[in-house]
């Protein structure tokens, strides 16, 4: 008999959800994380009485009743609605693309006028089936919006020409002919009032937890502790990169405390010019305003090409990487006592609610094989 039913590597949303459900079903879990904090990428740290999202803006949104009621067991959420703005050459535009954006861009007031301009700008587009991001974007919002608000931002974000990016990246971009600045279409949205780290800590209550514990530093020791392992770190790293490295886009977050109350007047502002090196500035206090916040904390996000030792943020799901992932996935199926999950274990961009949903699904499978 081993000491634990499951060793869960990673205390992000995936690992914490899996461990919680297993604990509630009388299974014994040990959760370990190489960080000295829980929460993974959603980690929030209090600076100057402001909850700072250390790894980029994290806004919780979901349409799943099950996920929403699950997270609400561990935290109270505020009613934050994400309404980002974009700045291009000192002009400010509303996002997502909606009537506010169109009226600023073209001085129009009605949906009919906006649609007419977009139609005029798309009618010369040569392709009926967009082959790349540029063609896809122009077919959705026309040339002006593409050139002013999409091209520079996207090329910075991915480090390649928009013509060389797949069309699917932008397919789900909301475009609305209403005056609605809410970025997400989901039924529920908000920010945990006490921060994500407290939410995850509360999820992990009563579950054995070790921080500063890198699985690879003591792999044999950890392997003999549990019947099964749930691994939420990078799948290629688990297999010693035997087939090669999966590629990611990385980011550098430069955070500053400013001795002023209000820097930009909004939580998220995108900078869409190609020659401004950062993609956006986050002003954290606007996610969760509290009394006595006399200073402000901002973070500039600089996209970076991925190198082996940089943190992996966005998977680059091109053909090379997808094929490589398939090889690792096939290899993972040969060891049924190790289960891979989460954004790094499955090499997939998951929103937090999707990571929770996937962890719930894996837990169900384990409980009802
Ligand atoms: C810049 C950015 C912004 C985002 N914004 C949003 C947003 O606004 N809304 C939204 O819903 N989602 C957002 N996401 C997605 C969100 O971060 C993910 O859904 C979430 O992190 C998935 O949780 P996870 O547990 O799979 O991964 P993670 O949070 O990365 O957790 C994995 C954990 O495993 C640990 N680990 C890895 N290897 C080891 C090891 N060898 N030993 C021990 N521990 C290990 C890591 O330290 C980490 O804590 C954003 C992502 C990025 C990159």
How do you describe this structure in short?
The chain is α/β, with parallel strands linked by helices and 369 residues long. 33% of the residues lie in helices and 20% in strands.
What order do the helices and strands come in, and which of them pair?
Elements: E1 4-9, H1 13-24, E2 29-32, E3 44-47, E4 50-53, E5 60-62, H2 65-71, E6 85-88, E7 91-94, H3 99-106, H4 111-122, H5 133-158, H6 168-171, E8 188-190, H7 196-203, E9 208-210, H8 219-223, E10 226-231, H9 235-238, E11 248-258, E12 268-271, E13 280-283, E14 296-305, E15 314-315, H10 319-332, E16 338-340, H11 342-345, H12 352-367
Parallel strand pairs: 1-2, 1-10, 2-9, 6-12, 10-16
Antiparallel strand pairs: 3-4, 5-8, 6-7, 11-14, 11-15, 12-13, 13-14
Task: Kindly list the characteristics that best describe this protein.
alpha/beta; 20% strand; binds flavin-adenine dinucleotide; single chain; 369 residues; 16 strands; Rossmann fold; seven-stranded mixed sheet; five-stranded parallel sheet
Going across the major beta sheet, what is the strand order? 7-6-12-13-14-11-15
Radius of gyration: 22 Å
CATH fold type of the largest domain = Rossmann fold
CATH architecture of the largest domain: 3-Layer(aba) Sandwich
Oligomer: single chain
Count of all domains: 2
User: What ligand species are in this complex?
Assistant: flavin-adenine dinucleotide
Give me the number of helical elements.
12
What's the helical proportion of residues? 25-40%
Q: Looking at this structure, what is the CATH superfamily of the largest domain?
A: NAD(P)-binding Rossmann-like Domain
Q: What structural class do you assign from the helix and strand content?
A: alpha/beta
What overall form do the CA principal axes indicate? Answer: globular
> Helix and strand string, N-terminal first?
EHEEEEHEEHHHHEHEHEHEEEEEHEHH
Number of strands: 16
Low-pLDDT segments: none
Biggest sheet architecture? 7 strands, mixed
The averaged pLDDT comes out at 95
CATH C-level label of the largest domain: Alpha Beta
Percentage of residues in strands: 15-25%
Query: Terminal Cα separation, in Å?
Result: 20 Å
């Amino acid at each position: 008999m081993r000491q634990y039913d499951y060793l869960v590597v990673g205390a992000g949303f995936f690992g914490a959800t899996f461990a919680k459900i297993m604990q509630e079903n009388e299974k014994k879990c040990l959760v370990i994380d190489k960080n000295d904090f829980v929460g993974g990428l959603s980690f929030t740290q209090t600076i100057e009485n402001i909850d700072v999202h250390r790894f980029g803006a994290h806004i919780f949104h979901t349409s799943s009743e099950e996920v929403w009621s699950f997270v609400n067991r561990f935290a109270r959420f505020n009613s934050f609605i994400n309404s980002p703005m974009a700045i291009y050459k000192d002009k400010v535009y509303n996002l997502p693309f909606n009537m506010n954006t169109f009226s600023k861009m073209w001085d129009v007031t009605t949906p009919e006028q906006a649609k007419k301009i977009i139609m005029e700008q798309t009618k010369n587009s040569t392709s009926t089936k967009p082959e790349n991001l540029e063609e896809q974007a122009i077919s959705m919002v026309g040339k002006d919006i593409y050139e002013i608000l999409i091209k520079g931002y996207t090329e910075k974000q991915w480090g390649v020409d928009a013509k060389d990016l797949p069309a699917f990246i932008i397919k789900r971009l909301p475009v609305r002919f209403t005056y609605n600045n809410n970025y997400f279409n989901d039924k529920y949205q908000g920010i945990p009032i006490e921060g994500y780290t407290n939410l995850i800590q509360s999820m992990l209550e009563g579950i054995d937890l070790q921080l500063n514990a890198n699985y690879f530093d003591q792999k044999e020791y950890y392997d003999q502790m549990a019947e099964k392992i749930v691994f939420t770190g990078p799948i290629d790293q688990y297999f010693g990169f035997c087939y090669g490295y999966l590629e990611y886009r990385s980011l550098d977050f430069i955070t500053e405390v400013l001795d002023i109350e209000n820097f930009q007047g909004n939580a998220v502002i995108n900078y869409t010019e190609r020659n401004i090196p950062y993609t956006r500035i986050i002003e954290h206090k606007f996610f969760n305003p509290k009394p006595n916040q006399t200073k402000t904390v901002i973070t500039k996000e600089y996209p970076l090409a991925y190198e082996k030792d940089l943190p992996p943020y966005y998977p680059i799901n091109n053909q090379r990487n997808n094929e490589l992932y398939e090889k690792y996935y096939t290899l993972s199926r040969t060891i049924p006592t190790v289960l891979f999950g989460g954004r790094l274990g499955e090499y997939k961009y998951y929103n937090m609610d999707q990571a929770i949903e996937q962890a719930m699904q894996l837990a169900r499978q384990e409980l009802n094989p």
